[in-house]
Amino acid sequence: MALTEKQEDIKRYALSLIGHGRRHHADDLYLFPVRDGYELSFRYVSEKKRYAEVSLAQGQKLLLFYKFMAEMDVSEKRRPQVGAGTIETADGAQRLRFATIGEYRNHEAMVIRFLYDIQQESALCFLFPEQYRQLGEQVLDYGLYLFSGPTGSGKTTTMYALARTLIQKRRRQVITVEDPVEIEVADFLQLQVNAKINVGYEAALKSCLRFRPDILIVGEIRDSETAKTAVRAALTGHTVFSTIHGMNKESVLSRMLEFGVLPSDLRQSLQGIIYQRLIPCLAQTPADSQLNGVLFDTLFFKRKETYDKQVDIQGTDWNALLKTARDEQLISEEVFRTYRF
């Protein structure tokens, strides 16, 4: 559609971008300042595709519309901001996470993450489907379970899907503490931290523990406060799920220690690390040309007693799993060489 600077045209164009991303199952929409305009592009797993370029004024008005929808401070252009919101499209409601940052010319850049509903586990695609079934059996004990992997690998989707699977087997209560709430799930009680009213992770955690959750989901661990909050919750005898970025499953331990978590607390609370990546699969049919499967690499710590020093470490071998996938012609030789450690 032709884009002008009229408010209604900007709104229609902004909604059409979200609709396009939803229909093509995009991971992200980028609005980046370039020269005298803005470049709009979509990311699909590891591939970024340029979509259009608009004028500087049009790009800034698109940003203003999205910031308003995300309940951000529309007057702030220098300080990084994050937000979330739901936008109605012709194909249905789309949950989104927004993030902005200002560059040296005082022009903002924005990335919009598409957050898709978790309707059923069959909607997820796994390189080895039995891995997901086994995960459901390994996250039953009390303690901390960390879901790791690069951006866009599906960590949050896996975490939420597992939680829903567990509450379907047994009537359980799931409470989430997030910044912001990413995926809306009717079965969960979802809390959002709010710095404006001094409700951080620690305050929200203290409040939600009074509701005796069977599973507590703490949003992405990106700082010391969140890391220590997740560990403390696990030490109180709860099942805690959280995500954390890491290069591999071993790096997760180092990151938690870097955040100031005491080794003794981590040793007592951590039950498992689930690392995952999206791996390009060989097409079985023409419709599968863009198919990517989740591959898990796990590490679980099994104790006879909560404070037992004797730990049975059970883990998988990433490179061996990739080799099996190649030998079974699920992935190509090129993908095998690219993704192995």
Automatic annotation (TrEMBL):
This protein's record includes keyword DNA-binding: no
Do you know which Gene3D superfamilies this protein is assigned to?
A: 3.30.450.90, P-loop containing nucleotide triphosphate hydrolases
Write down any Gene Ontology CC term.
plasma membrane
Show the GO MF annotations.
Answer: ATP binding; ATP hydrolysis activity
The identity of this protein, by name, is Bacterial type II secretion system protein E domain-containing protein
Lineage of the organism: Bacteria, Bacillati, Bacillota, Bacilli, Lactobacillales
Q: Which UniProt keywords apply?
A: ATP-binding, Nucleotide-binding
Q: Does the keyword ATP-binding apply?
A: yes
CDD domains xref list:
PulE-GspE-like (cd01129)
| PROSITE patterns xref list | T2SP_E
| Protein's organism | Vagococcus acidifermentans
